[in-house]
UniProtKB/TrEMBL annotation:
Family annotation (InterPro entries): Leu-rich_rpt, Leu-rich_rpt_typical-subtyp, LRR_dom_sf, LRRNT, SLRP
Leader sequence residues: 1-20
Compartmental location: Secreted, Extracellular space, Extracellular matrix
One Pfam family named in its UniProt record: LRR_1
Encoding gene (name): FMOD
Protein family membership: Belongs to the small leucine-rich proteoglycan (SLRP) family. SLRP class II subfamily.
GO cellular component: extracellular space
Residues of the LRRNT domain: 81-115
Subunit structure as annotated in this protein's UniProt entry: Binds to type I and type II collagen.
Protein name per its UniProtKB record: Fibromodulin
Main localization, broad class: secreted
Region (Disordered): 59-78
Keywords (A to Z) from UniProt: Disulfide bond, Extracellular matrix, Glycoprotein, Leucine-rich repeat, Proteoglycan, Repeat, Secreted, Signal
Organism annotation: Lonchura striata (white-rumped munia)
């Protein structure tokens, strides 16, 4: 057995470490690192600014021996080493926790990292090349910081071809970051200052399943959702939209548009999304004049929230609908034809919850054939 391997086994036994953590190619690097640690080595991080070079610098105290040990190359020195500002659990070696530490800069990310957490800090910028060394990243958490769009590198995510989840909610972004990796599955951008989403802003994100853009100032979406072939959830609530996005993807299952200023929906708008289950459009400006007779007559929708709009009549819905929320409108009549085009033993609505409270309907205005049509209903509030 080589003397280096023997010594590593002894040292590993003394410090309670498992040699299984290291492969044979890393034996000598691990030994050198241990010997340096015994002489009290240090890690110095230098924040990067555009006018400074290089981006990162590492320094090691000279050894006390007469013949100093050669220093490694800056970018190749202990790539598995954790920055002193962060925690890298030994039992989860691909994760780096740098959250809630009042950091104002991004520490160096070792190449082995897949999950990196920078949330709840005071970071204001993401410099170009910040993640070029960490091409294996899958989760990147940058939420609850002070990052502005003008202080983000133009291609900062360019080399992250395995990134699946990006969290940048609760920052100071005024536009969508990009270009974004095609591998992305979840994009969290809520609670920013974004005002517009260009039609090509999400181009190429065919793996994206969840898009969170709530609590921004978006007034225009264009056709930015149309090409997202895998999108399941789109949260555009609490914005300044005056019209629905131009075209929905066929894969969509959940659409949240509440707290906007939408006053109309095109005919057959939801028909292009045959998997759509949940539609929430409460607190908008919808009127019956802005809806066609078949706008919500989609057989897939199970829950429809149209509360707190300006509707005067109950819109026609499909018999497969299970939950309908219409409270807080201006509805003055209970039209059973909105739920059942034909009322008999074989034709009835699957509706379970119907809320009509906060309207102008009187309790005695319920038609006599309502119990037959709405026989599945367990909650009807007027």
């Amino acid at each position: 057995m080589p003397w280096a391997t023997t010594l590593i086994l002894v040292l590993a036994g003394l410090c309670g470490s498992s040699l299984g953590q290291y492969n044979e190619e890393e034996d000598l690097a691990w030994l050198q690192y241990y010997l340096r640690q015994s002489r009290v080595s240090s890690y110095n991080y230098v924040p990067y600014y555009e006018e400074e070079s290089p981006a990162y610098a590492y320094s090691y105290p000279s050894a006390t021996d007469t013949e100093p040990e050669p220093e490694p190359e800056p970018q190749q020195a202990a790539p598995w080493r954790c920055p002193q500002e962060c925690d890298c659990p030994p039992n989860f070696s691909s994760a780096m926790y740098c959250d809630t530490r009042n950091l104002r800069y991004l520490p160096f990310v070792p190449s082995r990292m897949k999950y990196v957490y920078f949330q709840n800090n005071l970071i204001t910028s993401v410099q170009e090349g910040a993640f070029d060394n960490a091409t294996e990243l899958e989760w990147l958490a940058l939420h609850n910081n002070q990052i502005g769009s003008e202080k983000m590198g133009k291609r900062v995510f360019g080399k992250l071809q395995r990134l699946e989840r990006l969290y940048m909610n609760n920052n100071n972004l005024t536009r969508l970051p990009g270009p974004l990796p095609r591998s992305l599955r979840e994009l969290h951008l809520s609670y920013n200052h974004i005002s517009k989403v260009p039609s090509n802003a999400l181009e190429g994100l065919e793996n994206l399943t969840a898009l969170y853009l709530s609590h921004n100032f978006i007034f225009e979406m264009g056709a930015s959702l149309k090409g997202l072939k895998s999108l399941i959830l789109a949260d555009l609530s609490y914005n300044n939209l005056r019209k629905v996005p131009d075209g929905l993807p066929a894969s969509l299952e959940q659409l949240y548009l509440e707290y906007n200023y939408i006053n109309a929906i095109p005919d057959d708008y939801f028909q292009v999304s045959p998997r759509l289950l949940y539609v929430r459009m409460s607190h908008n400006s919808l009127t019956n004049q802005g809806l066609s007779s078949n706008t919500f007559n989609s057989s897939s929708i199970l829950e429809l929230d149209l509360s707190y709009n300006r509707l005067q009549k109950i819109p026609r819905v499909n018999t497969n609908l299970e939950n309908l929320y219409l409270q807080g409108n201006q509805i003055n009549e209970f039209s059973i034809s909105s739920f059942c085009s034909v009322v008999d033993v074989m034709n009835y609505s699957r509706l379970q919850v119907l809320r009509l409270d906060g309207n102008a309907i009187k309790r005695n205005a319920v038609p006599p054939d309502a119990p037959l049509c709405l026989r599945r209903a367990t909650v009807i509030e007027i």
